[in-house]
Amino acid sequence: MAKGTIIVADDDAAIRLVLNQALTRVGFEVRVASNVSKLWEWVEAGEGDCVVSDVIMPDGDAFDILPRIQRHRPDLPVVLISAQNTFMTALNAQEAGAYDYLPKPFDLEKLVDTVNRAVLEPKDNRTTQTADEYSANMPLVGRSHAMQEVYRSIARLTASDMAVMISGLSGTGKKLTARVLHDFGGRKHGPFIAVNLSSIPEESVEAHLFGQKKEDGAIEHGTIRKADGGTLYLEEVSGLPLNVQSRLLRVLQTGEATPIGSTNPIKLDIRVISSTTQDLDHLINQGLFREDLYYRINVVPIRLPALKDRREDIADLARHFLKMSEMEGAKAKFLEPDALSVLREYLWPGNVREFENLIRRIAVLYPQETITPAIVEAEIRNGGFFRKGVMDASSGGFSGLQSATEYFVSRYFEEHGTSLPPDGVYDRFLKDFEYPLITTTLAATNGNQIKAAKVLGLNRNTLRKKIKEHGIRIVKTAR
């Protein structure tokens, strides 16, 4: 006996054939349609336990028929497939009530699994906001497979308040993703408060987050209180000191925060989104990050791909940033095909942030309407942020420790725009450099402190002191 009947609607005969065979093979009965009219005829007649439909067909759009399906058969799950692989497509699918959305070309096994789930676990009938409320000029750009997974995750989270952990290399768009989660979610009318924990001196983090009671008795509210009713975005959450981690955990458990020096807790309603470039599992193993807090803030993980892993998005990104520059007053510009090839070949160590800086710089500095490969090569080689000599573009690596340090210091200052970073940069950089240097050396010597001290050129007592200061846990492995 068949597990159920699946209606497959697509104007591409090859896709109808492939889906028919794959779904029949796992025990479903399949009916195929090449247009919206036939799809609706079968749905209206009560046929089918699940629909798999292309978005655009010759006689209509699946987004137009979805509301009718929901009114007539609210428990019928609809899985959409589309070659229009943008964030708005994923969001439209979610908000229109689709059970799921898969971009073309889709993974056949994944689609079959999705249909299985749809038949076994019918979706809830729920109302959502319409995508028409938002601008189609989306900040998230790209149609690559890597970005499709990101879009699908974000679309599913727009109706949720779950805590999200965004990970990825610097410059991949973590803050932008957090902002989209806020702007397209139920808290969009509330505040979005972003805190870059790596830029706050360690001794000031607690007061910055929780606020404090001043000598005159007045309460100076921290950023957590300012996020009440909205979203608190903790950028580089790995920078939280352990004592502050404990306090944040209590806030997430109780929904209350108490300013320093006060005994009166303040009721809060916040959603927490965090991001990190660090390996938090490694920090947990080193005793530097609380495991219980990790599970509280990492309910839904989103991993952002590096730009080198989504090179097919470079043309779309270039057009997007050129258009943004044009809207800000720059003249309209176009990239020659060979110029795009140069952009695709570069390794982009600074990811989308570096790419945006370069495109905007070209838009402003060059009067030509058409951007040639020579212009792009000159800006990659000599452009401000990634100066000549800092990066070895041919190998994708740094030309030496000094150039690597210069690169990261430059990026740190660049991230603060026209403002200077908080005081104490020297000590913060030394501490940030010292920790991985010591842990990597200890790992290389299998936890042997005598050997590690010798390699580092430190006195054994000095090394022990630094291990204690950084809270480094010695792990020895069998060899």
User: Can you count the beta strands?
Assistant: 20
Low-confidence stretches: 122-137, 384-399
Assign the CATH class of the largest domain.
Alpha Beta
Strand order of the largest sheet: 2-1-3-6-7
Q: From the 3D coordinates, which CATH architecture of the largest domain would you assign?
A: 3-Layer(aba) Sandwich
Q: Decide which structural class fits the backbone.
A: alpha/beta
Instruction: Tell me the β content.
Output: 5-15%
Provide a count of the helices.
20
Helix content: 40-55%
Our measurement of the CA-to-CA distance between the termini, rounded to an integer number of angstroms, reads 56 Å
Question: What's the arrangement of secondary structure elements?
Answer:
Elements: E1 5-9, H1 13-25, E2 29-33, H2 36-44, E3 50-54, E4 56-57, E5 60-61, H3 62-72, E6 78-82, H4 87-95, E7 100-103, H5 108-120, H6 145-157, E8 164-167, H7 174-183, E9 192-196, H8 205-210, E10 212-213, E11 219-220, H9 223-226, E12 231-235, H10 242-254, E13 256-257, E14 266-267, E15 271-276, H11 280-285, H12 291-297, E16 300-303, H13 314-327, E17 334-335, H14 337-345, H15 351-365, E18 370-371, H16 373-382, E19 391-392, E20 397-398, H17 401-414, H18 425-444, H19 449-456, H20 460-470
Parallel strand pairs: 1-2, 1-3, 3-6, 6-7, 8-15, 8-16, 9-12, 12-15, 17-18
Antiparallel strand pairs: 4-5, 10-11, 13-14, 19-20
Helix pairs in contact: 2-3, 4-6, 13-15, 14-16, 18-19, 19-20
